């Protein structure tokens, strides 16, 4: 029976990676996992429970701490490297935009908004953890790392929209410039 839970998590993660988080639904996940909706609900009684575990799995597989603890590297470079994981060119940006449209568009549902909220919470936790490391080194400006994380994530979302509409062929320099500007707002 314990294999069902892991199968559900795996199926949900695969759907999220292949089609974006907005594609998650009880029916789709249960079908992919080869279980009934009641079995899925046994392990994940609420939609938020499912969203949280999937968000954790997706974030953990996509967002590493990289070299955030390597004090031989300037703090700005380490923070930019970590933030860059949020802003990937081409398909990643388009998938992000599709998710935002699903959450904020005319077809938005409470479930989709709950999924987005779960992703935002997880992103905030991860960025705050990175900033806590930098704060312990004295590299962070005064203030609450959680507030700094929120500012960085707002900038990352705005930067993603900017990049999505950019006509530049090579987005890498633009991504680095945007992320360095963001990092400068929270680092000493």
List the helices and strands and how they pair.
Blueprint: H1 2-19, H2 26-33, H3 37-43, H4 47-62, H5 75-84, H6 91-104, H7 110-136, H8 145-164, H9 172-186
> In total, how many beta strands?
0
List unreliable stretches of 5+ residues: none
Strand content: under 5%
How do the helices and strands follow one another from N- to C-terminus?
Answer: HHHHHHHHH
Radius of gyration: 18 Å
What is the CATH topology assignment of the largest domain? Tetracycline Repressor, domain 2
Q: CATH class of the largest domain, please?
A: Mainly Alpha
The overall pLDDT, averaged over residues, is 88
DNA-binding region: 25-44
InterPro entries: Homeodomain-like_sf, HTH-type_TetR-like_transc_reg, HTH_TetR, Tet_transcr_reg_TetR-rel_C_sf
Protein name: HTH tetR-type domain-containing protein
Organism: Prauserella alba
Which descriptors would you attach to this protein?
72% helix; Tetracycline Repressor, domain 2; 188 residues; 2 domains; mainly alpha; HTH tetR-type domain-containing protein; Arc Repressor Mutant, subunit A; Tet_transcr_reg_TetR-rel_C_sf
In short:
The protein has 188 residues and is mostly helical.
Question: What would you say this structure looks like, in words?
Answer:
This protein is mainly alpha-helical and 188 residues long. It folds into two domains: 2-60, Homeodomain-like (Arc Repressor Mutant, subunit A, Orthogonal Bundle), CATH 1.10.10; 63-186, Tetracycline Repressor, domain 2 (Orthogonal Bundle), CATH 1.10.357. Helix content is 72%, strand content 0%. It is built from nine helices and no strands. The protein has helices at residues 2-19, 26-33, 37-43, 47-62, 75-84, 91-104, 110-136, 145-164, 172-186. It starts with a helix and ends with a helix. Residues 25-44 bind DNA. This is HTH tetR-type domain-containing protein. Keywords: DNA-binding, Transcription, Transcription regulation. It comes from Prauserella alba. It holds the Pfam family TetR_N.
């Amino acid at each position: 029976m314990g294999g069902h839970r892991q199968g559900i998590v795996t199926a949900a993660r695969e759907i999220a990676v292949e089609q974006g988080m907005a594609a998650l639904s009880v029916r789709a996940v249960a079908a992919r996992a080869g279980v009934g909706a009641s079995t899925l609900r046994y392990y994940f009684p609420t939609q938020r429970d499912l969203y949280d575990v999937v968000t954790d799995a997706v974030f953990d597989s996509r967002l590493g701490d990289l070299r955030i603890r390597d004090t031989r590297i300037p703090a700005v470079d380490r923070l930019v490297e970590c933030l860059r994981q949020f802003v990937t060119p081409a398909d990643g940006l388009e998938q992000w935009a599709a998710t935002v449209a699903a959450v904020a568009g005319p077809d938005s549902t409470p479930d989709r908004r709950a999924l987005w909220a779960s992703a935002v919470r997880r992103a905030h936790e991860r960025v705050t953890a990175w900033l806590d490391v930098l704060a312990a080194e004295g590299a962070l400006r005064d203030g609450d790392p959680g507030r700094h994380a929120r500012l960085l994530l707002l900038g990352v979302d705005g930067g993603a929209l900017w990049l999505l509409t950019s006509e530049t062929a090579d987005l890498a320099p633009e991504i680095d410039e945007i992320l360095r500007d963001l990092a400068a707002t929270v680092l000493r």
